[in-house]
Structures are given as structure tokens and as C-alpha cells.
Design a protein that fits this description.
Porin, about 0% helix
Length: about 240
């Protein structure tokens, strides 16, 4: 799944495995759908980068292959001065699982994403140019435990921005059909000279009201590097369809 949180205040939101920053290699089942309505917060250096309301849609377009799109509204809330609000950058991706072994206990996949520069860089709502995220994710399950690990690189050609690596590790425990809770450690290296790297400790989970409808939440903060406070809150629906 995908946590949607901004990479850094002043920068474009980086949408990644709700409600966590660490993603997984598991695509939506073929001809199934997922839909999220959510909001995120990243507060750093006295500035808050907020996405919300935002929507995410995923569909299993082929076996082991998922189409993905996120369309956010974005807020740039400085410590002083006027708040900016408008369209953020649009995320489009394809998740492809190429290892599914031991009855699903071990899975490996890639999830390349294109971040379209639909948000205004001048107003602090977007990157200003199209950029790219190229991760690989691994999942291992053991009983009620699920472990996700991986990372990748950001390729960002916008002026003043760096290409940068990122990675995370996530452990989740399913208590019963209603509750799953997890904790992760996620590292983002420097995105620009004025956007240093940081490591976030983040906790959250899922409350399943039914097989098709859930509440997702997480919150955390930096344990190393630049000081960030992050949070995610969203609603999730899933359903099957044909055609």
C-alpha cells in the first residue's frame, strides 16, 4: 500500500504506501480496484506541507500488474506570510510483481512512478518539472507478521534539486480481521542543498470496518537528520469489477 507524505516542506509531496512511507510489492488483484480519500502532513523548519483532500486510485490491469494514480490538492503553510493552496503534482505509476513464492509468503516487485509537474513551484505546491521515483520492494510474511523492505532512487531534473536515494523497513502485525498495526523506519537522503536528509520513525495501521472499507492512519517524527513531523489519515474502499 501507499503512505502519502511530503518529502520535505517546500517540496512536492512524495506519495508512497498508505498509511506508511515504506511501500510493498503486492499489486491489486487483476480486475480489482482500490480508492482512497486522504490527507497528509509534513511539518519541517516551521513550514507545513499538506496534501488534502487527495485521491488515489489503483486497478489490477493484468495479473501481477497494477495501474496507480494520485491527484492531490496541496497546501504550503509557511511560518510567516500567506498560505498557498491549489493543485499539487500528479503521480502515475505501474506496480509489477515478478516474484511470488511460497504461497505468497515471499514477494518482490518494482513500482516506478512519474510525478507530473502539475503543481505550481512558484507557490510551493509542486516541483516545477516532471520527476521520477524508481523503487524495488520486498515482502515476507510469517504468521500474523508482515515485513516490507526496500528502496530506490529519485531522479529530479528541476533546477537546484538533487537525485537522491531512499529506503525503508516496515513491520506489521494483524491482531484480528479488524486491526493491523505497524511501525517503520524510513530514510530519505538530501533532495537539495536546503533540504537535508532525515530518518523518520513512523507508526500507524488499519481499522477494517468491513472487507471493503477501512480507516488508515499513521504519525511519526525524525530520529536523525532534519526535523520532520509527519502524519496520514485516509479512508479506503476496494471492489471487484470486470472489463
Amino acid at each position: 500500500m501507499l503512505f502519502a507524505g511530503s518529502l520535505f516542506a517546500f517540496s512536492v509531496p512524495c506519495l508512497a504506501g498508505p498509511p506508511f512511507l515504506t511501500d510493498d510489492p503486492v499489486p491489486v488483484d487483476f480486475q480489482h480496484n482500490e480508492f482512497y480519500v486522504f490527507g497528509t502532513l509534513d511539518h519541517a523548519g516551521g513550514v507545513s506541507a499538506i496534501a488534502g483532500p487527495a485521491i488515489e486510485y489503483n486497478r489490477g490491469i493484468l495479473p501481477n500488474t497494477q495501474f496507480h494514480i494520485v491527484v492531490p490538492m496541496a497546501w504550503n503553510v509557511p511560518g510567516t506570510g500567506a498560505t498557498s493552496y491549489g493543485m499539487g503534482d500528479t503521480e502515475i505509476g505501474i506496480k509489477y510483481r515478478f516474484v511470488n513464492a511460497d504461497n505468497g509468503a515471499l514477494q518482490v516487485g518494482v513500482f516506478p512512478m512519474v510525478e507530473l509537474g502539475t503543481g505550481s513551484a512558484r507557490r510551493g505546491l509542486g516541483n516545477g518539472q516532471t520527476w521520477y521515483r524508481l523503487p524495488l520492494w520486498v515482502q515476507k510474511t510469517a504468521g500474523n507478521w508482515t515485513f516490507d523492505d526496500g528502496g530506490g532512487v529519485i531522479v529530479n531534473p528541476a533546477p537546484g534539486m538533487y537525485n537522491a536515494s531512499f529506503g525503508g523497513a516496515l513491520a506489521q502485525y494483524t491482531f484480528d480481521p479488524r486491526w493491523t498495526l505497524g511501525v517503520e523506519l524510513f530514510r530519505q537522503n538530501a533532495l537539495a542543498a536546503d533540504q537535508p536528509g532525515y530518518t523518520v520513525l513512523n507508526a500507524g495501521g488499519y481499522l477494517n470496518f468491513s472487507q471493503n472499507f477501512s480507516l488508515l492512519f499513521s504519525a511519526g517524527g525524525s530520529v536523525a537528520g532534519a526535523r520532520h513531523t509527519v502524519a496520514y489519515l485516509g479512508l479506503y474502499w476496494t471492489w471487484a469489477s470486470r472489463g
